[in-house]
Amino acid sequence: MTRPMLFLDVDGVLNPYAAAICPDGFIEHEVFPGEEPIRVNAGHGHWVSELLGLMDVCWATGWNDNANELLAPLLGLAAFPVVRMPVPFRPAEKVARIAAHAGQRPAAWIDDIHTPEAYAWASERTAPTLLVTTDPAIGLTRESIERVLAWCAVETKNGPRGGPPPDSIFW
Fold it and tell me: CA-CA distance, 62 to 74, in Å (whole number)?
């Protein structure tokens, strides 16, 4: 069985940039001089580490290598592979890059913006695929992690199938 992949965005997922004020549990960090601070909840590092036992994690963000250099240390995470994005980019442009990186492996993707192109890609794949959309004012929640863990447990138990699981492609 091929390990599932997790594609993880940063802004709107690990950095709830759309919140009017810094949410409880988050600390603001000045990582890009002259720009807005990022908001980081160190507990998210523990949640992502839980997923590492079952999945291969990749950054899928315009942060590119900055995710490993600036964010991963704040979360207590090791470096992950990076799905490189042009900067700036339109959200729909992520799909082809993630698709190429995923190949035929089962894949979960946590992002605050899943475009119609992302949903089309997920529904057309023969490998199991899960899209988890976060609210950019809230960011990653425990509920989102539980959804990925439950999906991953089913995928690793049952192995590859001919098509996506019924009624559970998207959460």
Answer: 18
| Cβ contact 130:29 at 8 Å | no
pLDDT in tens, 57-112: 999 999 999 999 999 999 999 999 999 999 999 999 999 999 999 999 999 999 99
Residue 119 near residue 95 (C-beta atoms within 8 A): no
Query: In Å, how far are 52, 53, 56, 75, 121 from 48, measured between CA atoms?
Result: 7, 9, 10, 9, 24
- Judge contact between 169 and 120, C-beta under 8 A: no
CB contact at 8 A, 158 and 4: no
22 SS3 class = coil
Task: Please give the model's pTM, rounded to 2 decimal places.
Answer: 0.90
Where exactly are the structural domains of the chain? Answer: 6-158
**33-66 pLDDT tens trace:** 999 999 999 999 999 999 999 999 999 999 999 9
**Total residue length of the chain:** 171
Is 6-158 in CATH node 1.10.3680? no
